[in-house]
Every structure is written in structure tokens, then in C-alpha cells.
Specification:
Protein name: Cystathionine gamma-lyase
Radius of gyration: 21 Å
Helix content: 25-40%
Number of helices: 13
Strand order of the largest sheet: 1-7-6-5-4-2-3
CATH class of the largest domain: Alpha Beta
Largest sheet: 7 strands, mixed
CATH superfamily of the largest domain: Type I PLP-dependent aspartate aminotransferase-like (Major domain)
CATH architecture of the largest domain: 3-Layer(aba) Sandwich
Number of domains: 2
Structural class: alpha/beta
Shape: globular
Cofactor: pyridoxal 5'-phosphate
GO molecular function, one term: lyase activity
CATH topology of the largest domain: Aspartate Aminotransferase, domain 2
Keywords: Lyase, Pyridoxal phosphate
Organism: Streptomyces chisholmiae
Distance between the termini: 54 Å
């Protein structure tokens, strides 16, 4: 089996042909010439399939599951992928278990799911809370169809044991989906750990350049993939070929970005650990982090995000304003470092001074110096 770098550089590419480009250009087509029976045509109409998607989907499947065959379905955003995974596989009257500390749109999606007749149970990511919620939901009247995990969680960076929870869910007849946005396929492989679905916002680390919205669902189970793909075709939640092409092109540097960002994030986290005004510091790569042992077992790289809390809102705002190499922006996983006070959105249960810092690929010494200087300015 080839290494991650070799795989990332060549994932999803066609066989070499003389005089053809190494990376096929995006196919911009609403329809294709379609003689005969549409059922046997690989491409017929743009809402159903596109050659540019096929290359990217093949690449993602290879990265998420290098040891066993898998398939992926791409979407125009991470939320489109999440919504499709849930709504394509869970029927009214069935139950789902969702994280209470995951991405901030989950509460709104939960309201929508409940309005469609799904029964929703929730639990925080860390500890045994999800296992307890799964057991409690299993004893209820409605069968649990899906357990949704987000590990590391966003923005709090809590971890849960994918293998353990997958085994428990399967014993109760439930599927398991893992949001793999923060770790990326090179940092964590949920399918190898027992999950049925690996779902991610490709907007984040997978693309890594802050210029494309994209999402995907990957699985080793063709029946699940078929259901998700039918949902995409029916709802028209399709990505553009140019966006798909940009993400596929960017995968060639994914292994370099993941490694450099993890290295940089750990350096920044260590610098933050020395500051008395910083509390609640989280990064899975820190030996002192409460989930470090679990991270070592199930993660292959510890990610680019560091979260921490400054004394209050004003202190955090002074820190963000004083940063020079770190942009004040949302999202994470990009090559340029960003940070934000998450409380400004109102959807996360975090203190007013809570900061999520996404570390890019700049020189680590420069980032550490910038963060330390901004902390000094904020402290006054």
C-alpha cells in the first residue's frame, strides 16, 4: 500500500494517456449526448452525474478508505452533506442521537428533523454521555437508526471513542456517522474504526484554501451510498464542476498541509499553555489535554485547531485586533491562520472570551511570536 503523500497526489486521477493533461479539466455541461437507454449511460444530465465529480469522489473514497473499497458522494456544502446523510437514511418515526456540542447549525437542523417526524436524542461528546444516550434511546419506543458523532468536536475539541461507540450502536441496530471535518481523511479514518459513514465539510481542511464550499459523504456500504446519491439527485443538491475540480486539484498538497498545520498548532498551543490569562486550553496533541490518550489511539494527526478562553469579551477582542498574521474570520482548516471569538454567533455554549484559532502553514516561529505579542497587547 502506498503512503498518504503518494495517495493524495494521485488519488482519483485517470490512467496516464499520452498527450493528455495529468489533471483532467473541469467538465462544464448541463447535459451530455445521450443515445439509447439512459439507464446504462454513465453521463446523461448534469443533475445526476458529472465526470469532474467522479474524479473527486474516487479520490475522497481512496483517502477515507485506502484498505477497502469505498464510495463517496460530493455536495455543494458540508451542511448539504450532513442533511443528506440524515434525511436519506432516517425515516419519520425513527430516532437519531446527535451531539449537543457540535457544529452550531445542529440545533436548527434538529428543529427541522423533529418537524419531519424524526425523534431526536442529544448528548455531549466527551465521556460516556453518548453511550448513555444511545442506551436510553434504544429503550424508548422508536428504534435508533443513526448515532452521529463529531470528533474532535467543533469548537470545543472534545473527543469520543469511535470504535467503542460504533460497536455499541451496531449491537443495537443503529448506523454510525462521524463528522470528520476537523481531522480530514489523513488525520482520522472513521470507516476503519467501525463507522458506517464519514461525513465532512470539504470547505475546511480538505480544500484548505478558503475559496470553495463543498461537502461529502463516504461509506464502504454501497446500499447506503446509493440512498445518499438518490437524495442528491432528487433534491438537486449538486456541487459545481469548477468547485469540484478546485478541491481535487488541492488534494495533491493535503498531506503537506495536514502535517504542517498540526505541527504549527501544537507549537501555538504550547505557547498558550505558558500564559496565566489563558484558561480552558484544548488541542488533542497536547500531552496535558484530557483526550490526548484517545487522540493518540484513533487520530493520525491532531488537527489545526486550538481553542482557549481569555478572561472576558473585551480581552478576547483586544487579542484578535492585535494579531497581525492571524485573520479575524470564521471557518477553519485554511492555509492562512484565522481566529474568532465564537460567542459572537450565539450558537455555541462557550464563554464570552472563548477563541477558536485555526492554525495555517506559516512559519511556526512567526505565528508563535504574533500570538505572544497579541496576548501582551491584550493584557495591557
Amino acid at each position: 500500500m502506498t503512503g498518504d503523500g503518494t495517495r493524495a497526489v494521485r488519488a482519483g486521477l485517470p490512467a496516464v494517456e499520452p498527450y493528455q493533461p495529468p489533471m483532467p479539466p473541469p467538465v462544464l455541461a448541463a447535459h451530455f449526448h445521450l443515445p439509447g437507454d439512459p439507464a446504462v449511460a454513465p453521463f446523461g444530465y448534469g443533475r445526476e452525474n458529472n465526470p469532474t465529480w467522479v474524479g473527486l469522489e474516487r479520490a475522497i473514497a481512496e483517502l477515507e478508505s485506502p484498505a477497502e473499497p469505498a464510495e463517496a458522494v460530493v455536495f455543494p456544502s458540508g451542511m448539504a452533506a450532513i442533511s443528506a446523510a440524515v434525511l436519506a437514511l432516517v425515516k419519520p418515526g425513527e430516532a437519531v442521537v446527535l451531539p449537543t456540542d457540535g457544529y452550531q447549525l445542529w440545533p436548527k437542523l434538529r428543529e427541522r428533523l423533529e418537524s419531519f417526524g424524526l425523534l431526536v436524542h442529544t448528548a455531549p461528546t466527551s465521556g460516556d454521555a453518548q453511550l448513555a444516550a444511545l442506551e436510553s434511546a434504544h429503550r424508548a419506543a422508536a428504534p435508533v437508526r443513526l448515532l452521529w458523532l463529531e470528533t474532535p468536536s467543533n469548537p470545543g475539541l472534545d473527543l469520543c471513542d469511535i470504535a467503542r461507540l460504533s460497536a455499541a450502536a451496531h449491537a443495537r441496530g443503529a448506523l454510525v456517522a462521524v463528522d470528520n471535518s476537523l481531522a480530514t481523511p489523513l488525520g482520522q479514518r472513521p470507516l476503519q474504526l467501525g463507522a458506517d459513514l464519514s461525513v465532512a465539510s470539504g470547505t475546511k481542511g480538505l480544500n484548505g484554501h478558503g475559496d470553495v464550499l463543498l461537502g461529502y459523504v463516504a461509506s464502504r456500504q454501497p446500499a447506503l451510498v446509493d440512498e445518499v446519491r438518490r437524495w442528491r439527485t432528487t433534491t438537486g443538491a449538486i456541487p459545481g464542476p469548477m468547485e469540484s475540480w478546485l478541491v481535487h486539484r488541492g488534494l495533491a498538497t493535503l498531506h503537506l498541509r495536514v502535517a504542517r498545520q498540526a505541527e504549527n498548532a501544537l507549537a501555538v498551543a504550547r505557547a498558550l499553555a505558558d500564559r496565566p490569562e489563558v484558561t480552558g486550553l484544548r488541542h488533542p496533541g497536547l500531552p496535558t489535554d484530557r483526550d490526548h490518550a484517545l487522540a493518540v489511539r484513533q487520530m493520525r494527526a491532531f488537527g489545526c485547531v486550538v481553542s482557549f478562553t481569555l478572561p472576558d469579551l473585551a480581552h478576547a477582542e483586544r487579542f484578535l485586533t492585535a494579531l497581525e498574521l492571524v485573520d479575524d474570520a470564521t471557518s477553519f482548516g485554511g492555509v492562512r491562520s484565522t481566529a474568532e471569538r465564537r460567542g459572537r454567533w450565539g450558537g455555541d455554549a462557550v464563554p464570552a472570551g472563548f477563541v477558536r484559532l485555526s492554525v495555517g502553514v506559516e512559519d511556526p516561529a512567526d505565528l508563535v511570536a504574533d500570538v505572544r505579542r497579541a496576548l501582551d497587547v491584550a493584557r495591557g
